[in-house]
């Protein structure tokens, strides 16, 4: 093909190599697939592993890098963040790329950003931390380039308000964002250091902390972002950029430098194959518009000068279509400040403000303004930008082959979808200058109602309103002209103008009250008609909290930084996918069913470029003789690896595609064609309601796991003054959304053995499942897990399938096989939290005392039992936090044709707590009393606590809930705030607030755990435990425990030993019986085992120390270990800690208060404040525990409010992307967040008196759901909304989650119409 390239234009525009700098090193790449992403190249062809693949959509920030471009004409360097998962490698020619390793590392020293992230405890699992560091660093250096005054030494020019937005597009599932905000704010020139949270640089309560105590920051970042050698090379090659060498095997990337060259390319014979026209390639991350096959050719039009021109005119300005959205925002803001366009500033300013809420910063930096509009023109893409530009009266310039056209944006959107023969050249935005000499005001507003104020969230509704308004002096009325009312593409193919409304308002007059009020009232009326109002901007985040620690067990109890946290920040921490690929490594991706309960007749692949990349296909037929079709297992049964011959649910694995790269495997999997047959099969059971009940499709719950009822419900009901009959509460599923998706690397070894690196919370059971699948001894399988990039229960049992699949492929092909599920596949296949449908009947007295509660629970377990038989007990345990008088229940664990549901952070407890508080609030609404009075009325006494929790109530002194609740009510000023909310609600018609306080009783059951401590001859210490580091700080606490226990042998104490302790990765053939890391107990169990092992070493070393001290009073640690080694003392001790009968179970206590505000017109939710008090016993590490508590609470907000797990009619998850599934982001956390970790003193049956912290606080997030209910009640009370005839408007069903769409619905879909009808009636009455 290359030999046939004879035309001059072809030779000029073909690009066969790319030159760039990566962390200051020169790279020249040639002959690569033109579809190669920058992230793929960095991770597979360089030693740098900092950027991570989290979503492949530009929606999470894990892959963020800094890209710097140099302009030799102005000698200026421009830096911006970019999603390396979307950035095509060939687009960075002569660019400089910086990853977090380029900021700092263990060899060259860490950067201040990395050190402050570490010191403010802003990294837990660490998977998102490199991307966070890059977003923050880029914000710092760009702020430092501004013309602001020089900041004090050690600070950046960044402002506190900007610091909060610096990483607004980055997702974190662990921390709850508070410590990341503090780390970022520490650089801000206007920060009050005393306002910053817990850190290692100064102690809580220290007066006047100084910036000198923080890691030093150099203004400008202190990092060379564009090396001199690349500047020199760029300058010297300017004359040759358009004419690089051509190699026959390296074609595929074309870079036209003019429109003429573009059309010559399009019209040439080269493009009979698939071709993609790109600028930023960000559309490849948008669900519905992602690449469905590989492309053999790309045309990069970003280098065409006409597409990047900025032309300012008197009537407005023209922006080239290839201009990035971020640059467009900058231009609009510059125009706002320009004295030459004062009348246009209102339009430009609001356009810029709205665009800053579109996508994420690192997507806006590379996405072109024209690409966004073209996407909206070609597809039903809900573009905010198209809508607001339509409202601003924008025109566009098109090139259609040889013809150039100027048309309105409205006309462009209404055209048939354009193809590559039509180029969008530019967008013209008018100034909208009113007529001179008239008293005319320009009105322009843009609105969006979206799940998140900022960050990656597509709007539910968007709109823009523009017009001129003046007062007619004769009629004393408001006159409107030039109206443009634009609404987003919902229910239509694209954004549209409401022309009939425009005409109506133009010819109509609004009665003049007074000019200021009249202008102000215009747009609220229109908003009421359309039920749209803009959401709040990013919150002003404040926090306060206290921690209590003890000096008894130093360094245990100290808030030291997380073990290895700097390595996480610098990208040097090794996760499974960071392990270098072995030689001849292959990659796999699942093929899964899209239908439930169907025979799989055939599996074929479409003829495509991606299909050509398939090396092998592995299915159930490839399981070795003697092996089993098993992909997961637990106490209650097995789950098959493949659906064979029947696919039992949508999302079940049917086979594995093998290719040479992960991207090829992922794309090849999209080419599958599966033929199904449902003949002779019963209809699938998709719901856990009527379908499962009708067919009695249940899993058994073993009698020993079925929860115990309390008292006589019939008697309690008979004694009740009031009864509420069967009332429903529904709780949907929740996806784990760990930042690191499921991944495994299987490497064949000698004699039919395998080493499997798995991101797993349960390597021990993974080993057995793999061995059973392959039909080999357990000893032939070594499973290694170093660290996990977030788990939350999703990598307990659900990780086995990926590890087993990789092992099967490696075993068959005798080559290493890596599987790293893409986010969409992970979400479809892995399952999530158990959906629950509850019906409750409750009896209670007039004083609020509940006498009886009966529950009917239907729990959707999915297709396999997994750990589901435990869930009924967990739900009821959480419900028992109140004294119901008598409690009975009927629980059905439903087997359905859905993906298997599994444990997820606070499994069962999250659902049970919400059900319990729904009952309490329902009782309160019937009695018309404050819910808190009903709660406290039904708190346990110690006697009833023993009745409801006979195995775990503990001693009376440990029951701290009453004091915690009282403390929280007092410190949060709950009563005063409740009164203020009443006043607020009475004064605000369209905004309402609510506040709620919920208690927590969490049943904890530690499990046995192994531990081994070894002291090497140089005095360094190696520790092995069964628990897995998944971000919860397990290694940190083990490190502290080791230093404490062995520090008793050294006069300097345990703190001096901390740096000598190394915790090793889990290895199933090195330390057996590692068990399951879950339920927040693995840290204390691992610490207990470590303490036992250390005590053994202490007993061995103490006699040696005594002998040495007879010779010299001061004996160093090194001397002690050297002598012990010479004396042949065994310096390695192993222990297997088993909790005693008394310490087997205990209760955790806490309470949380949340205050929210809702917008009745949109349902938009603002979290005003959150207050938590939590009993941690004696915290092993207050910083770690505080982070776990705050992160757990924020994750709980996601479950109760934001995260919509949506499936189609076949049970297939369809909200399977970062675009559709919204976990909490920094812009939706409470504006004020106060968390207090209590030290409740000595607990003789706990590990150094500690208690679990990782899961229980999630339950407290139900307070947000309850507060929403209170706010909605206030709305319904004002508008007398009742959806059920005869029922009080205060009684309504509010399911989980409760996103803004549900909030709006519960406030009453017809509120606006009723309100307008009321106004009309009043006006007619007044006129009469």
UniProtKB/TrEMBL annotation:
Keywords: 2Fe-2S, Abscisic acid biosynthesis, Auxin biosynthesis, FAD, Flavoprotein, Iron, Iron-sulfur, Metal-binding, Molybdenum, NAD, Oxidoreductase. It comes from Miscanthus lutarioriparius. Binds 1 Mo-molybdopterin (Mo-MPT) cofactor per subunit. Mo-molybdopterin binds at residues 761, 792, 905. SUPFAM superfamilies: 2Fe-2S ferredoxin-like (SSF54292), CO dehydrogenase ISP C-domain like (SSF47741), CO dehydrogenase molybdoprotein N-domain-like (SSF54665), FAD-binding/transporter-associated domain-like (SSF56176), Molybdenum cofactor-binding domain (SSF56003). This is Aldehyde oxidase. [2Fe-2S] cluster 2 binds at residues 125, 128, 172, 174. Residues 246-434 form the FAD-binding PCMH-type domain. The active site is at 1255 (proton acceptor). One of its GO terms (biological process) is auxin biosynthetic process. Residues 16-103 form the 2Fe-2S ferredoxin-type domain. FAD binds at residues 368-372, 384, 424, 448. Belongs to the xanthine dehydrogenase family. Its cofactor is FAD; Mo-molybdopterin; [2Fe-2S] cluster. [2Fe-2S] cluster 1 binds at residues 55, 60, 63, 85. It comes from the Eukaryota. Aldehyde oxidases (AO) are homodimers and heterodimers of AO subunits. One of its GO terms (molecular function) is FAD binding.
């Amino acid at each position: 093909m290359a030999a046939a390239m004879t035309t001059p234009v072809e030779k000029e525009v073909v690009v066969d190599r790319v030159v760039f700098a990566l962390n200051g090193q020169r790279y020249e790449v040639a002959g690569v697939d033109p579809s190669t992403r920058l992230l793929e190249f960095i991770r597979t062809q360089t030693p740098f592993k900092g950027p991570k693949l989290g979503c492949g959509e530009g929606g999470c920030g894990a892959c963020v890098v800094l890209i710097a471009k140099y302009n030799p004409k102005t000698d200026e360097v421009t830096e911006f963040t970019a999603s390396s998962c979307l950035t095509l490698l060939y687009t960075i020619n002569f660019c400089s790329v910086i990853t977090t390793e380029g900021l700092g590392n263990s060899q060259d020293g860490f950067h201040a950003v990395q050190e402050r992230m570490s010191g403010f405890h802003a990294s837990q699992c660490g998977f998102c931390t490199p991307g966070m560091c890059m977003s923050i660093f880029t914000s710092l250096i760009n702020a430092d380039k501004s013309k602001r005054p020089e900041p004090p030494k050690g600070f950046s020019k960044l402002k506190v308000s900007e610091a909060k937005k610096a990483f607004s597009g980055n997702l974190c599932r662990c921390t709850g964002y508070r410590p990341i905000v503090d780390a970022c704010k520490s650089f801000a020139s206007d920060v009050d250091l005393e306002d910053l949270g817990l850190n290692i640089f100064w102690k809580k309560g220290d007066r006047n902390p100084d910036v000198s105590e923080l890691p030093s920051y150099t203004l400008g970042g202190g990092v060379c972002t564009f090396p001199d050698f690349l500047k020199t090379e760029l300058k010297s090659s300017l004359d040759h950029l358009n004419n690089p060498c051509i190699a026959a095997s390296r074609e595929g990337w074309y870079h036209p430098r003019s429109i003429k060259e573009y059309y010559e390319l399009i019209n040439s014979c080269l493009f009979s194959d698939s071709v993609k026209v790109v600028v930023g390639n960000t559309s490849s991350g948008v669900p519905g518009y992602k690449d469905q096959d590989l492309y053999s050719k790309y045309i990069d039009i970003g280098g065409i000068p006409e597409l990047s021109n900025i032309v300012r005119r008197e009537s407005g300005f023209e922006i080239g279509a290839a201009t990035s959205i971020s640059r467009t925002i900058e231009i609009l803001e510059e125009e706002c400040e320009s004295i030459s366009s004062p009348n246009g500033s209102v339009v430009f300013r609001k356009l810029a403000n709205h665009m800053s809420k579109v996508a994420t910063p690192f997507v806006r930096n590379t996405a072109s303004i024209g690409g966004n509009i073209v996407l909206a023109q070609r597809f039903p893409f809900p573009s905010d930008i198209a809508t607001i530009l339509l409202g601003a009266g924008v025109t566009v310039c098109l090139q259609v082959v040889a013809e150039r056209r100027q048309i309105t944006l409205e006309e462009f959107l209404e055209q048939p979808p354009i193809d590559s023969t039509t180029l969008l050249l530019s967008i013209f935005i008018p100034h909208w200058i009113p007529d001179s000499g008239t008293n005319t005001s320009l009105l322009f507003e843009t609105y969006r109602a979206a799940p998140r104020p900022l960050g990656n969230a597509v709007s539910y509704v968007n709109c823009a309103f523009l017009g001129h308004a003046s007062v007619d002096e004769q009629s004393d009325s408001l006159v409107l002209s030039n109206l443009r009312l634009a609404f987003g593409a919902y229910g239509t193919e694209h954004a549209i103008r409401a022309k009939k409304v425009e005409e109506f308002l133009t010819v109509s007059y609004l009665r003049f009250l007074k000019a200021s009020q009249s202008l102000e009232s215009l747009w609220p009326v229109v908003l009421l008609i359309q039920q749209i109002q803009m959401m709040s901007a990013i919150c002003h985040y404040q926090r306060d909290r206290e921690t209590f620690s003890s000096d008894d067990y130093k360094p245990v109890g100290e808030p030291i930084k997380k073990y290895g946290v700097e390595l996480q920040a610098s990208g040097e921490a090794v996760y499974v996918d960071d392990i270098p690929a072995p030689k001849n490594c292959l990659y796999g991706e699942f093929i899964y069913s899209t239908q439930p309960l169907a025979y799989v007749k055939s599996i074929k692949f479409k003829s495509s470029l991606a299909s050509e990349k398939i090396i092998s296909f592995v299915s159930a037929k490839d399981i070795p003789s003697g092996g089993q079709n098993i992909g997961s297992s637990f106490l209650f049964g097995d789950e098959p690896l493949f659906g064979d011959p029947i696919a039992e649910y949508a999302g079940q694995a049917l086979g594995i595609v093998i290719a040479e790269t992960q991207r090829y495997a992922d794309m090849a999997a999209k080419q599958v064609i599966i033929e199904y047959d449902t003949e002779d099969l019963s209809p699938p059971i998709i719901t856990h309601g009527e379908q499962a009940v009708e067919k009695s499709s249940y899993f058994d719950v073993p009698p020993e796991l079925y929860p115990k009822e309390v008292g006589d419900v019939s008697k309690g009901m008979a004694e009740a003054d009031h009864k509420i009959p069967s009332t429903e509460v529904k709780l949907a599923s929740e996806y784990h959304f760990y930042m690191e998706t499921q991944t495994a690397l299987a490497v064949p070894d000698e004699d039919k053995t395998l080493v499997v690196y798995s991101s797993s919370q349960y390597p021990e059971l993974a080993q057995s499942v793999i061995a059973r699948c392959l039909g080999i001894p357990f000893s032939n399988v070594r499973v290694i897990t170093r660290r996990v990039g977030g788990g939350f229960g999703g990598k307990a049992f659900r990780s086995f399938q990926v590890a087993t699949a990789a092992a099967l492929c490696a075993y068959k092909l005798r080559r290493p096989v890596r599987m790293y599920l893409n986010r969409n596949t992970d979400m479809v296949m892995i399952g999530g939290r158990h959906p629950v449908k509850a019906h409750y009947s409750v009896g209670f007295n007039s004083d609020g005392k509940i006498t009886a509660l009966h529950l009917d629970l239907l729990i959707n377990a999915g297709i396999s039992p997994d750990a589901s038989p435990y869930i009924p007990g967990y739900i009821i345990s959480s419900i028992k936090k109140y004294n119901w008088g008598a409690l009975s229940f009927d629980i059905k664990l439903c087997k359905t044709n859905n993906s298997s549901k599994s444990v997820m952070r606070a499994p069962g407890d999250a659902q049970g707590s919400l059900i319990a508080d729904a009952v309490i609030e329902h009782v309160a609404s019937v009695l018309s009393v404050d819910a808190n009075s009903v709660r406290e009325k039904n708190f346990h006494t110690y006697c009833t606590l023993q009745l409801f929790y006979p195995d775990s109530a503990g001693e009376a002194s440990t029951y701290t809930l009453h004091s915690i609740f009282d403390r929280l009510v007092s410190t949060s000023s709950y009563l005063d705030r409740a009164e203020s909310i009443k006043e607020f609600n009475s004064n605000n018609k369209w905004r309402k607030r609510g506040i709620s306080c919920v208690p927590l009783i969490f049943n904890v059951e530690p499990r046995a755990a192994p531990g081994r401590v070894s002291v090497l001859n140089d005095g360094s210490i190696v520790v092995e435990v069964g628990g897995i580091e998944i971000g919860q700080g397990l290694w940190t606490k083990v490190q502290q425990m080791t230093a404490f226990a062995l520090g008793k042998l050294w006069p300097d104490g345990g703190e001096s030993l901390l740096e000598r302790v190394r915790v090793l990765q889990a290895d199933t053939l090195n330390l057996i019986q590692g068990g399951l890391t879950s339920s927040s107990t693995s840290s204390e169990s691992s610490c207990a085992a470590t303490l036992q092992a250390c005590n053994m070493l202490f007993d061995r070393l103490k006699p040696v120390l005594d002998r040495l001290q007879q010779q010299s009073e001061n004996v160093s640690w090194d001397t002690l270990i050297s002598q012990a080694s010479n004396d042949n003392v065994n310096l390695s001790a192993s222990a297997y800690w088993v909790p005693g009968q008394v310490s087997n179970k205990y209760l955790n206590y806490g309470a949380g208060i949340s205050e929210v505000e809702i917008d009745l017109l949109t349902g938009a939710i603002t979290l005003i404040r959150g207050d938590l008090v939590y009993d941690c016993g004696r915290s092993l590490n207050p910083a770690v525990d505080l982070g776990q508590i705050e992160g757990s609470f924020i994750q709980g907000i996601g479950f109760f409010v934001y995260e919509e797990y949506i499936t189609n009619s076949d049970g297939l998850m369809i909200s399977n992307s970062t675009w559709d599934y919204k976990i909490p982001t920094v812009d939706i956390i409470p504006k004020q967040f106060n968390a207090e970790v209590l030290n409740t003193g000595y607990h003789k049956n706990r590990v150094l008196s500690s208690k679990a912290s990782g899961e229980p606080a999630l339950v407290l997030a139900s307070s947000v759901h309850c507060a929403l209910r209170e706010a909605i009640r206030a709305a319904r009370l004002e508008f007398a909304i009742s959806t059920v005839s005869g029922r009080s408007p205060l009684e309504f069903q509010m399911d989980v989650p409760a996103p803004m769409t549900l909030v709006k619905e519960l406030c009453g879909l017809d509120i606006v119409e009723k309100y307008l009808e009321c106004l009309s009636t009043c006006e007619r009455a007044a006129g009469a």
